[in-house]
Amino acid sequence: MFRGHRLKLLLILVISVQVAAASQIRPDQDDDGYEFNDSHFHLTNYIQEGTPIREFLKFMGTTVKRAALFGIPLQQEWSYRLSGDNAPTYYLQTDAPLYYYSFNDAFIAQTYLSLTKEQQARLDPMITGFNPADMYAADHIRRVLQLYPGVFSGIGEFTIHKEFVSEKVSGGVPSLRDPALDRLLSFAEETGLIVLIHNDVDIPFAKPDDTPRYLAQMKDVLRAHPGTTIVWAHMGVGRVVRPVNRHMAMVENILNDPEMAHVMFDISWDEVAKYVVASPESLKMAADTFNRYPDRFLFGTDSLAPKTRDDYLKTYRIYEPLWRALTKEASWKTRRGNYERVFDQAKARVRAWERGQLTRQ
Predict the structure, then answer these.
(1) Which of 11, 172, 225, 268 would be 300's cystine partner, CB 3.0–4.6 Å?
(2) CA-to-CA distance for 200 and 213, rounded, in angstroms?
């Protein structure tokens, strides 16, 4: 058994080295014309409706090479008792609860499988339809991989603490201290799945000088899973959970910690982009950090079921001042290179795990 474990580790190492070598294309060698890869895209919204996949591919066009593809794991309940004929389409439009919608994963898989191989090569589907507070969440993810081999590369975006959302979820508020979260992150390490997690670093409307409420807990989770590639969505901020005092210093503290070398940040969402470009000072702080750590950031749109190409590209365009402020290397890696490196590595590892499962049957 020990020998088999060593062989498995060696295989993972070989795959990782090969993928890393293939993915480290220098900016001056990148002449295919694509401007970015999208690490954070929701095909569907909070009532499981969204952009037709072929329409989305048209939105990508020759601007976006690849996109991580997922829906929203939560369904907004339409309670006639609360809103009558006014059907809510967003979680802020009603007091009715949200509930986990596991069919989302089958929908994403079937949508992906309906495409040609060339179209599939531009998309990296993610598993989202699980409750991270459920000890069976890891079993759900395992079943999805076994039912749809060759499809998924990661899990997420899924949410632990999120302003106005967490308290609406049926079954109770998720927690970073829940062993169910540890179980699914350990399974992600076993399989090689990328993890994209949304966790606000603080509570809404916190006092500026208070210690961010969830920072210590989040660090504990990150340190506990060094073998899992974890992407912290939106750098921990939200619509009203604004960047905390010395926010980039907090980010750099994580980037500097050798126990969290497996952690990356995505800078998706137009709300986050507005914080970054809000002033010359905020822009400089962000650009300086990205330039110092060019391998640790991913751009994503966080576009939610866009209706037009302009809607889809909105966040990317807000970030124009940032792209100009970055070095050529940092700009390319944030927009393109880091995505290709981590997703290609994850895809290779997950496919290897799936093949191993077939040999055991």
Answers:
(1) 268
(2) 9
| Separation of alpha carbons 228 and 284, rounded Å | 31
Q: At 64, which CATH number?
A: 3.20.20.140
> How far is CA 4 from its chain centroid?
32
In a domain, 235, yes or no: yes
Any residues with CB less than 8 A from the CB of 220 and at least 6 apart, and which?
Answer: 176
Q: What is the pTM of this model?
A: 0.90
Task: Evaluate whether 44 touches 104 at the Cβ level (below 8 Å).
Answer: yes
Instruction: List the Cα angle 127/132/137 in 5-degree steps.
Output: 65
Phi and psi at residue 60, in whole multiples of 5°? -65, -45
Averaged pLDDT, groups of 10, the chain, 361 residues long:
45 46 47 93 97 98 98 96 95 94 97 98 98 96 97 97 88 91 98 97 87 95 98 94 87 97 98 95 96 98 98 98 98 98 98 89 63
pLDDT of residue 247: 92
Q: Virtual CA dihedral for 354, 355, 360, 361, nearest 10 degrees? A: 80
Residues 6+ apart with CB under 8 A from 208: 244, 245
In 75-209, alpha helices (H): 80-83, 103-113, 117-120, 137-147, 179-191
